[in-house]
Amino acid sequence: MTVRETPMYIDGQPVQSQSQEWRDVVNPATQEVVARVPFCTAEEVEQAVASAKEAFKTWRKVPLGKRMRIMLKLQALIRDNTDELAALISEEHGKTLPDAAGEVGRGLEVVEHACSITSLQLGELAENAANEVDVYSLNQPLGVGAGITAFNFPIMLPCFMFPLAIATGNTFVLKPSEQDPTSTMRLVELAHEAGVPAGVLNVVHGGPDVANQIADHADIKALSFIGSSHVGSLLYDRAAAAGKRMQAMMGAKNHCVVMPDANRSQAINNLLGSAFGAAGQRCMANSVVVLVGEAREWLEDIAEGARNMKVGPGTQADADLGPLVSPQAKERVERLIATGEQEGAKLLVDGRGCEVEGYPNGNFVGPTLFSDVTTEMTIYREEIFGPVLCVVGVETLDEAIAFVNANPNGNGTSIFTNSGWVARRFESDIDVGQVGINVPIPVPVAYFSFTGSRGSKLGDLGPNGKQAISFWTQTKTVTARWFEPENVSSGINSTISLG
Question: What's the CA gap between 436 and 286, in Å, rounded?
């Protein structure tokens, strides 16, 4: 098998890095090396930023209608190439093909939303705000934007960033995860096939040095980050010190509250899918279930459902979850499972030692279920990012709400109930940015903003929706008066009044 050499993308062309540092990209089901990715040099990052800066001079003046038509073409190309993109995701990330195709679909939503740029970027006008004075606002692009994405959604997360950024007239430098870059690079190729001009969308690769260079760079005006809380917090501070806008979508510990009046089978099936799908490698995964009142009696049904889930490579048609992305991720998850046992949680389903026929080297961990979990335990405090579900029991809805609100993270939460009153009470009182009602993973459609909160988010504005338009643009307000040619001034007005 030929090992792919992952290029950079600079000034509209794939460019081979001259870096001496390269990393292997590995199929997590087999440990087979499928690609190599460079850790770009500082000079190469400078080239990418310079290309974007130069392209901004002309791209910012391209009519909205033309930008819209490029987005229309891009969404069609993504739709036509979904199977190819999904296969690349599955090969390097490990998630199942249906899950990978679903990821492409969620990314496609953002591109479709960007097709509405002709109405999204409109300003405001007040005619005759004062005597023959009009006041109007313009939503103009910032300049060069940048994005740094995590490994878990190599198509969706870049789509959360560059389509709206470039549709609003900015140019862009993207640093995808070095663990699974190929599907992202194919997406960038499709963007250029759709008509994105040279220099408008550039790609560099690397680790902390490249990320820090992006955060520090004076020519980059805004940075979007999705990844761990540790890295996001460091980059947020660096970007702020450099005077740039920053949004950081970070770690989570999401809770699913199950009321006793919920549809039992629906709630359990949705809970299991959200906890163990993608092997738990989702920032919106439900990693804690709070069983309220008599719903605590459903624990064995949840455990039985977890035991019956199928683990296999992403290409296996009946697999419910695939491998973890790397041997290091597997080791960490299994270590946290052991810690959970040591700290007194009850291990009902143990996914360690998971064997998949024909794939002896895969990074497989099966669904794992703990009960009797307390807030002091490591498995509750840390984001495990693996197929591990913690179960907590409480007596009342009030206790459940207080329990969720006491957690420092605020990415997402959900509740399963058949009571409209309970649902409305929950959505009103819960202090979490994204809420699902009988929806286990409440990532909103792309024309609404991604609104994680508290410890899961830094920055006032999130990706997608109206907030993304505000993030990628700056408002210029114009106050204008036009005099008749024969108009004679009535004298000097030394007050602040517009007169």
Answer: 11
Residue whose entry in the numeric block shows the structure tokens 């296969």: 87
Asked if residue 101 lies in contact with residue 78, where contact means CB atoms within 8 angstroms, the answer is: no
- Return the bridge partners of 255, or none: 288, 413
Longest dimension (CA), the chain: 91
- One-letter amino acid at 130 equals A
Structure tokens that stand for 56 in this block? 């901004």
User: 292, 299, 268: which is closest to 402 by C-alpha?
Assistant: 292
Give CA–CA dist 431/398, Å, rounded: 13
Cα 312 off chain centre by = 25
pLDDT by residue (tens digit) across 311-364?
Answer: 999 999 999 999 999 999 999 999 999 999 999 999 999 999 999 999 999 999
Put simply, whether the predicted model's pTM sits higher than 0.90 gets the answer: yes
Residue corresponding to tokens 């090969």: 91
Helix H or strand E segment including 45:
helix 42-59
Dihedral of CA atoms 242, 243, 245, 251 in degrees, nearest 10, equals 40
User: Is 138 strand, coil or helix?
Assistant: strand
**Cα angle for residues 306, 32, 147 (degrees, 5° grid):** 80
| Amino acid (1-letter code) at residue 366 | G
Contact 434, 412 (CB under 8 A): yes
Residues forming the active site: 283
Band (pLDDT 50/70/90 cuts) for residue 498 is confident
Q: What Å distances lie between residue 397 and 260, 264, 295, CA to CA?
A: 10, 17, 12
